[in-house]
């Protein structure tokens, strides 16, 4: 299997991209640590934040449905 770059995106539920990481040369079965990722309250916004791995779905996988994780709203509620 040929190594492929993987794009990881943090975006709000309105589609606004907050952070984009390009992970080079991920081999099938390899693990990688991405982070820590630090976001401000303003970057997170008022909506839920979504983490999307393999954006925009460029890599052919056995399980395509496990690439999205809803991180929810700002962890401390509506205020800092």
How would you describe the overall organization of this protein?
By secondary structure, the protein is mostly beta strands. It has one helix and four strands, in the order ββαββ. It has one helix spanning 41-44; strands at residues 4-12, 17-26, 49-53, 68-72. The chain has a four-stranded antiparallel beta sheet, with no helix packed on it. The longest helix is centred in the middle third of the chain and has 4 residues, at 41-44. It is elongated, with a radius of gyration of 14 Å. The relative contact order is 0.27.
Radius of gyration, in angstroms, nearest whole number: 14 Å
Strand arrangement, largest sheet? 2-1-3-4
Report the strand count: 4
Q: Helical residue percent?
A: under 10%
Query: Main sheet, how many strands, which sense, barrel?
Result: 4 strands, antiparallel
Mean pLDDT: 79
The arrangement of helices and strands along the chain is EEHEE
Shape descriptor: elongated
How would you classify the helix and strand content by structural class?
mainly beta
DSSP strand content: 35-45%
Number of helices: 1
Q: Which short descriptors sum up this protein?
A:
mainly beta, four-stranded antiparallel sheet, 1 helix, 4 strands, elongated
Task: Describe the structure in brief.
With 80 residues, the protein is mostly beta strands. It has one helix at 41-44, and strands at 4-12, 17-26, 49-53, 68-72. It has a four-stranded antiparallel sheet with strand order 2-1-3-4, with no helix packed on it.
